[in-house]
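Case study 2.
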Amino acid sequence: MVILIGVAVVSSQLGAQVRSKARLAQANADRNGALAGFARVLMGVNRREELWDVLSQEIARLFDVRTIVVAPDPPGEGGRHLVVKAAIPARGDLDLIDGVAARWAFDTARPTGPGSDSMAVSEWHFHPVRGGNVAHAVLGVAREDAGTPLGPTQLPLLASLLDQAGLALARITVEEEMLALGKIQERDRLRAALLSSIGHDLRTPLTTVLGMLRAIRPETPVQQSQLDMARGEAERLDRFVANLIDMVRIETGGLDRALEPVDLSEAVTAALDDLRRVLGGHRIAVEVSRDLPLVLADPVLLHHCLINLIDNAAKHGGSRGKVVVRARAAGEGLALSVLDEGPGIRPGEEQRVFGMFTRLEGSDRRGGTGLGLAIVKGFAQAMGMEVAAANRLEGQGAVFTLLIPPGNLRQVDSAA
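Prediction:
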């Protein structure tokens, strides 16, 4: 009897262990199968909206629960406003308590609701869908009987499924960024091709027109006035075309530079001479001392920078406004500024004014092609300089400053 009882006890324990291992093995197999099936489904998902639908449906099927997915709208706005993206069964917005629980789960990237350490009064158990340490969406699960949605043994499987959803979301995000980048590159390529085509196709006939206008000799004062006007407009168009070609050179990396010592006083004088028709009745003040150090710059690029800055000041500083060209020491470097008497620049737009085709409303940066200041910035950076925009401290108007670092200065040899 003792032997039989001992054998029965041992056999029962062994059988229990075998049954326990069998159940564990079956549970692991089911878990691995669920993960593999979910991963297989996610491979065919290429859009965020489709991901939220698949996640909601699969979690509802695997755990026999109600599900809801909430995420920011639009994506990437820091969760400013969470909206329902998918739900099984379909439903609208969450009520106040559940909405607060979902927001807490999104902001903290931690579970909330029944069975968690926060917002246990909520009907829904919310889990964040993370990408790294940041939540990109929140999955909520609940039961019809308002009981605890998931048991302790089900939470690891849910966490694994959400990790896979996070990986799929990261893949979709990368694909969206690559698609957006491809569109930007294609747009920039087409824009560069268009600018190049327009610039080069106009340059030859425009050069001919300018040559003919300069060769014509008027016979009356009326003809002289008409000829001056035609020359001025043709020269302005020539500058626009030159700006188009220069911008293509900047964007395509075909900008050549040859740095050499340049006298700022002579450079300013040359620029003003080329713009004498544009300046017309404007008052011009040049405050450039001749004892300033020479500037290491490309003479052609610096000339274009000055022409665009002065032309911009004349164009937007009023028909009779005063244009001031000033060069002063700025720390160990120099600051070459062009000041106008226009309305100035709206606060916060100081950097945007240097964008391509930018013409700001409510300021004196209107009219023209919107390329001049963008070219100034590109040329300045090519020469190792920077350009800044601001409103004048004294009086009304804007000031554009070319900042020349100490490395671009060359002292004049007094012995020479």
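Residues 360-369 have pLDDT under 50 and may be disordered.
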